[in-house]
Amino acid sequence: MASILPGYEYDLFISYRHKDNRYDGWVTDFVANLKREIGATFKEDISIYFDSNPHDGLLETHSVDKSLEAKLKSIIFIPIISQTYCDTKSFAWQHEFCVFNKLAKEDQFGRDIRLANGNVASRILPVRIHDLDGEDNATLEQELGGPLRAVEFIFKSAGVNRPLHANDKREENLSRLFYRDQINKVANAIKEITNGIRFPGKRGMISESKAIPDQTIKLASDENKKSIAVLPFVNLSQDVSQEYFADGITENILIQLAGIKQLRVISRTSIMRYKKTEKSAPEIAAELSVKYILEGSAQMHSNKVRIQVQLIDAEKDDHLWSKVFVESLDDIFAIQSDVAEVVAKELNSSLGPKETEKLKSIPTKNREAYDLFLKGRHAFNQWGVEGYKAATEYFKQALALDPDFKEAYSYLASSYSARMSWNGDLGPAEAKENIDRYLPEAWKRGASDNDYLTKAFVEFFINKDFLASEKLLVEAIELNQNNANTLYTYSYLLNMMGRHQEALQCVDRAKVIEPMSVAYFNYQFVSLYLMGNYEEALKVIKEGLKLYPSVLRFYDFLTRLYLTLEKWEEAEEAVHDGFRVSLVRPPSMVAFLAVSCYALDRKEKGKEWLDELITRGKANERMVNLNIVYVFSWLGDFTSAIQWLNKAKEANDVGLIIWGVDPLLKKLREHLQKESPTSFASPDYGGAEQYITNLLETEMPELPYHNKAHVYDVLQAALSIAQHETVSADEIPILRLAALFHDIGFLQGAQDHEARGAQMAKEALPGYGLNPDQVSLISTMILATKLPQSPVTKLGKILCDADLDYLGREDFYEIGGRLMEEMTAAGVVETEREWNIMQRTFLQSHRFQTEFSVKNREPLKQQHLQEINAKLKNRS
Fold this sequence. Notes:
By secondary structure, this protein is α/β, with parallel strands linked by helices. Helix content is 55%, strand content 8%. It has 38 helices and 15 strands. Helix 7 (243-258) crosses helix 10 and helix 15 runs antiparallel to helix 16. The relative contact order is 0.05.
């Protein structure tokens, strides 16, 4: 079987010491399972070289020959790293590992590949089945020229160092690894690397604002030398009411460490489950995938505080540093900053001037105000409306004692945003009034990531301005990449905009910081559900319920999913299960119960639940109106559904954010589009993007140049140009759709593809609520990309420059080579010289349209023209 890339013998080369396979056939089983996983990961077939019979081919006593050299001409090299592999005299080491490393560095792509997310991965993808001696590890790192990054298949327990097997139980393995998950990681890593080679220009869909700062999401097996979890400090006081003080110390140190960009710090939500745990530091570190653990205790008495802290290298179970502070309460902030500085130093993380200044800052000089603040934050962290209400009062009391207490203003504003969320006690108007009163006070004293998050909540839930919210969330992530709450919120926003794949990536990033939390299951479910991946969504929410059986929101999600699948009895059962764990009946679950009863032909019972909702709606209970819409929409009573929808809009119901993507409201959306398309509430840009993205992913031809990777590259370039031109927030969705549609005509062939793409946009976009003027603008933009380009509008000029952005970029020859390949296959050119003549003519006549491209792309474009002229002059 040939490689997926021309010029390569195999896609994968599996290298191993044959003695490692003789014992139990581990490598043979691994390859068989990997083949199955790859079959479920790749659309095309992937070729693998695996010398399964060492007695029928090259033995370790043979000399390397041309046969092996050809086999080593593979895209990815997978060495099975064992206790015996790093023998520099062995055949596998000398003639496979070292030879591939040298060949890969010298071939056309190089050994290290830039991935779609901007990170870099090696074409050597090690699989490690044993913990290594220090000498062997050093040998590997010396040959690789850097640290070993491997996918681990190691079963760890006391005195055990052996390969992980498919039948090993996760709970019996100290590292908590699961064989199938690790196989999946290998397959996904292979796909990332091969896509990085095949589609070097492809990037994920991004917003018009700055992209989220790159942050490598390491495999669980990575030796992440700068990762830490701050375990809940033990309250040594006999007074249980002092628990808030120990928790407050924990969170303050955690927040300070999270502000150090070089560190990966596990979130408070994930570490609090280890309060009063009997698990060892290595066990906790393995579960959280961190190298270091910080633990301690706190005790307050009168004006004195005693804090004991110790830093542990959990991988080695080695205590690196410990100290006992017995100080006045006045020195509490100095103690916390000292701890953060020592930890940063021990983890070899240098602190910049701003970080040092932040560590040394004193939030308040009023001890009583600080005490109230800690109580407020402790109540806030209970994740319930009663806790939020108590927090509000504590923060107000703290500000009464110190009107300049920045953090108190910040968290006070946050408490009001929390109280307007699902099952909260405040409506949007009341919440916004208080946020507008307190958030500016925090902002003018130096906005934190928490302040950006609160402001994003206002734009998202209240103003329904998704683009403004996105800008704020990206800023928050730039300020603190260790804030999982911001990442999870961003994933939710992206889902409401129809950008579900991006949302899933955001959840993956947040999970690294806050693994297996309520938030993870919440936002992972939302992403999978809105993507239509109902089977996986069901697995996620059931797993979440096993771990958190009292979370009412999970029962709400489960019911919603069963309704979507028309499993009425299961939906009814899920609602009643939820009611049993809660004293309240959320309007959404009452609505879902009404639908279930109507569907099961228990109309009287269904009417009872609907009447309850209507009564609660007339009493102006928050978030009821939209849930009544669900019932009438399912009944087909669109007149009543629209009446209650209008009431929801009048009340500015927070739940309206899901209107454009909610599967349960699809029939009502279609009815409104059909009956009154011009008065339809607002365009469903997210739905339109999902439609065109699905076409690109499933039907776009894989031509060398005109393919989905090119479309995504044009999208990214258009948004980058738009940042520097005068483009309004309302124009960005139009630009995004035009970029995504501009080459979709290739579904029907290359000839006149612009006209066909424009026609497809005209046919599809009205169904997503875009008005005739918007559709006409997008169609005109697409037609303007036809050569010679003829843009007349500002957005058209941006799209045309984005379509040819590569002319003035470093990857000009790489992308141009793919276009030449496509032109050659089409019979347009036959030789490289003909291609260079065509390129010269085109570059001489081409003109960039926007100020950004003229300034940033034209100079390098002219350099490329000179280089092509030189080639033609030399007839090379």
